Amino acid sequence: MGGMTTDIKLIDENGRRVDGRTPEEMRPLKIEAGVLKRADGSAYVEWGLNKVLAAVYGPRECHPRHMQNPTRALVQCKYNMAAFSVDDRKRPGPDRRSQEISKITSEALSHVVFTEYFPRASIDVYVEVLQANAGTRCAGLTAASVALADAGVPMRDLVASCAAGKAAGVVMVDLGKEEDNFGEADIPVGYVPRTKEIVLLQMDGDLTHDEYTKGLDMAIKGCEKVYDIQRDALRRRYEARSLDSEIGAPEGVQKEVA
Ligand code: ADP
Predict the structure, then answer these.
(1) Confidence (pTM)
(2) Which of 2, 7, 144, 191 is 20 to 30 A from 199 via CA?
(3) What is the pLDDT of residue 7?
């Protein structure tokens, strides 16, 4: 982000971006809830070329015990990028970047989970990035919040996440890889549509005040679109579950819904 030069035309003469999008257009987003049988809740997200899986365990007793909070649950996220998720093999294991993303994701989710219902508990959220193409923290947070809902964890609302930024002098939503690498700024946002709270806000690069305001507005509009897709995914999951119980399928056996 910021400063790297390229021959790639990030905006063409028609105002279109590298992948043909307009500045206001997001990459295609697909979400599926309940994709893992062994986790308490799960979700799979494909967002452009990003592929992200989230799994939730808990609420369960927090270990080690000295980490327990006697008044509320801890929401603990672990964000991990698979070695094969990027062009060059990523060195496996935690690094500063994944620790930072784990922390901001945990904090964003803690704002919506009714943690006070589960003293001394831990709610563990695993975000596994299988394929990365910029915007994985937003895809991860979006997936994690659907996985929490799928696990039946009580929440004020879902967190929807989307970024905006600036590339080739143009403020745009949902930056792709080239725009992230060679652009001027990126603002990932986590948003709670029901209360209009912002639970994640970061900025990488430089923007004027007007550009920042425009970018934030675009990111929030993006979050609202993400929210609709999250809710559709949960609705489909709920309908598939109800169908299972109607036809008396054994627990854990999920039928395809036409
Ligand atoms: P985000 O994925 O949330 O946009 P960054 O801005 O830190 O987070 O990263 C942008 C993109 O850079 C990632 O989505 C990924 O495609 C790429 N990237 C990040 N870390 C690495 C790495 N260690 N090796 C190769 N590519 C990486």
Answers:
(1) 0.94
(2) 2
(3) 79
